[in-house]
Amino acid sequence: MTRRITPAVAAAFAAIYLIWGSTYLAIKFAIATLPPLTMMGIRSLAAGGLLYMWGRWRGGEPPRLADWKAAGLIGALLFLGAHGGLSWAEGRVPSGVAALFIATIPLWMTLIQASIEGAAVFTKRTVTGLAAGTLGIVVLVGRGPGTLWQGEPVDPLGAAVLILAALSWSVGTAMAQRRPRRTSLAVTSGSYLLAGGALLLAAGSLAGELRDLRVDAISPGSLAALGYLIGFGSVIAFGAYAWLIRRRSLAAVSTYAFVNPVVAVFLGWSLGGESLNPRVLVAAALVVAAVVAILSGRAAHREAGPSIPRTAETARAGRSYDAGRRLPGEASIHRASPRNGRQRDVWTPRAPLRIDDQPERR
Fold this sequence. Notes:
Blueprint: H1 7-30, H2 36-57, H3 65-89, H4 95-102, H5 105-117, H6 124-141, H7 156-178, H8 185-206, H9 209-212, H10 220-244, H11 250-253, H12 256-270, H13 278-303, H14 312-317, E1 332-335, E2 345-348
Helix pairs in contact: 1-4, 1-10, 1-12, 2-3, 2-8, 2-10, 3-7, 3-8, 4-12, 5-7, 6-13, 12-13
GO cellular component, one term: membrane
Organism: Candidatus Kutchimonas denitrificans
Keywords: Membrane, Transmembrane, Transmembrane helix
């Protein structure tokens, strides 16, 4: 039976589709007069502080020292490597094209999943998606005769940084999903943002950004774009995403991955004055098709996975376990004692998360 689309659900999907798709152009406007690493560091610290305080106010436990150490590593991958690389590369690559490179994250996630689960993840759809995504990147950076190659190819250094940024996000996501979460999602995400933001500011300082920064040269447009990235990109859209994954299937929520680059390319062309030539259009079609194929292939792999035989342990538990369902010893959620008058869900870690699950993003 089809689930009814309520106004709240429609608004949440609009947030992750449109807001996240528009953040690429917002970054371009922000770095017009703000240094990229420093700008992204301010964004991460501000958004992380808001999420962390909100999570603590809702009863989330503070992270332990070991959690902060993990947050430093994961924050370095997600925000210093991925967001920092993206903001720096957008000084050399159009925002819509940058979105196409970042949209290859499902390709990297599939390869990471294969390194853990084996070659069984390579269904016909995922292999087709990997080939299409690779071809899309070749179209963006390649040279040759004919209409397809009209316009200058993407700056090779910018392209390399964007590919590494997508890889960094994928590795950080896999690490975050496999690490047991002892407190609320907001506190955990806030700790990642805070750690990543501090590292971004440190990297910006080492790169001489703070030394060369002229406060009187910062434009109102850059400040407005930074505010949009903090309030809309990191708080509202992430809140909508966290709300949606509790109410809709992962497959449905994952559709943002192929809507975002379309939105980014259109906004870059219509509002950012970026070129929309055959090279970009063909690459966009290939990358979007690749993401669709990979996401559908991963869903088919989960549904068609081999059944886990009934064992003495499962017999004692009174049930058998099929692939894709919670296995004996996996994490569970229970209701903890009230704190500040509120009950809260607490994650009880017993086994790592599967990396199929969607990343905590932006």
